[in-house]
Amino acid sequence: MSSHLPNSVTTARVVLLCGPSGSGKSLLAARSGLPVLRLDDFYKEGDDPTLPQVAGSSDIDWDHPLSWDADAAVAAIAQLCGTGRTSVPVYDISLSARTGSETVDFGGTPVFIAEGIFAAEIVQRCREAGVLADALCLSRGAVTTFRRRFLRDLREGRKSVPFLLRRGWRLMRDERAIVTRQTALGAYACDRDEALGRLAAAAVHSVPEVVDGLRVREA
């Protein structure tokens, strides 16, 4: 599925917001006041045969990019940037299943956020399509994210407690590598306050695209 949009029909651009699970992406996106596309709704369903497993375990690795439908997410972003509307799945994490679909309508907004742990995976594709405003990786420290993630997932009943503990310890050990990968894919690592500043700048079309730390184009 192609994600390319001719510049002549692009009416909006996207800020991709990634970061380790539990880093506060959803809260930050809500605080920004910008429209938000939830990239977690593009997870594959639990019976999908292509789902990856955690090495040495029977657990599905929901933190691996192959557990997520990148093509569908890019197509939805491209349509939102071109028309302001798209249909997206409604995903129930506790069931590992899509429970329906809904129409997202961002109207004439010039910038919106697409947030999720896999957002960095599509930075290059959005840049090539000419729709990228900025890409941010929110990082708050492994202990903080472990606590936030476990309490959130427990409160929402996302998975069983043993699964959440196994996943939590694994992600805490891997957090530095996760941030390193996301920044290597083109996301800019920052804390909450700097992220809010860059989101505010993107809203008025003043965030430059950055490649390897160099400002290459002003919006």
Features:
disordered N terminus; 22% strand; alpha/beta; 9 strands; Rossmann fold; single chain
**Shape, please?**
globular
Largest sheet: 5 strands, parallel
Task: Say which CATH homologous superfamily is assigned.
Answer: P-loop containing nucleotide triphosphate hydrolases
Helix content: 25-40%
- What is the number of strand segments? 9
Number of helical segments?
A: 6
Structural class category: alpha/beta
* CATH C-level category: Alpha Beta
Structure summarized in a few sentences:
The protein is of the alpha/beta class.
Can you offer a commentary on this structure?
The protein is of the alpha/beta class. The chain has a single domain, classed as Rossmann fold (3-Layer(aba) Sandwich), CATH 3.40.50.300. It is about 35% helix and about 20% strand. The chain has helices at about 25-30, 70-85, 125-130, 140-155, 160-185, 190-205, and strands at about 15-20, 35-40, 85-90, 95-105, 110-115, 130-140, 190, 210, 215. The strands form 3 sheets. The chain has a 5-stranded parallel beta sheet, sandwiched between helices. A two-stranded antiparallel ribbon has the order 3-4. The chain has a two-stranded antiparallel ribbon with strand order 8-9. The longest helix is centred in the C-terminal third of the chain and has 24 residues, at about 160-185. The radius of gyration is 17 Å and the shape is globular. It starts with 12 loop residues before the first strand and ends with a strand. Mean pLDDT is about 85; it is low at about 1-10 and about 205-219.
